[in-house]
C-alpha cells in the first residue's frame, strides 16, 4: 500500500489536475475513507497550500484559483540520487 506521504502528494496532484473534486471521489481514487481525505486536506492547508472547501451534499475541494505548485528543480546528481532512492524504496516495499 502507498505511504501517507505518497497519498498526500497524490491529493495535491489530483487537485491540480481537476478543477474540483469531492471528498468521496478523492477517497475512492486513493482507496481511503473520507475522514482520511479531510485529514490530508488539513495537512496540506497547514503547509500553506490554499485549498478551498465547499461544504454540503455537493461540496468539493479545489485549489485557490491561479495557484500552481512550482516545479521542483534538481541538479543532475540530486535527480539521480532521488531516482535511485525511489527505486530502492520500491524494491523493499516502502
Distance between the termini: 9 Å
For the largest beta-sheet, the strand count, sense and barrel status come to: 2 strands, antiparallel
| Mean pLDDT over the residues | 87
CATH topology of the domain at 4-66: Arc Repressor Mutant, subunit A
Order of helices and strands: HHHEEH
Annotation field: number of helices: 4
Tell me the name of the CATH class of the domain at 4-66: Mainly Alpha
Category by helix and strand content: mainly alpha
Helix proportion of residues, in percent?
40-55%
Assign an overall shape: globular
Range of strand content: 5-15%
Strand order of the largest sheet: 1-2
User: Do you know the CATH architecture of the domain at 4-66?
Assistant: Orthogonal Bundle
Could you name the CATH homologous superfamily of the domain at 4-66?
Answer: Winged helix-like DNA-binding domain superfamily/Winged helix DNA-binding domain
Written account of the structure:
The protein is mainly alpha-helical. It has a domain at 4-66: Arc Repressor Mutant, subunit A (Orthogonal Bundle). Helix content is 54%, strand content 9%. It contains 4 helices and 2 strands; from the N terminus they run H-H-H-E-E-H. The chain has a two-stranded antiparallel ribbon with strand order 1-2. Helix 1 packs across helix 3 (34-46) and helix 2 packs across helix 3. It is globular, with a radius of gyration of 15 Å. The model has no long low-confidence stretch (mean pLDDT 87).
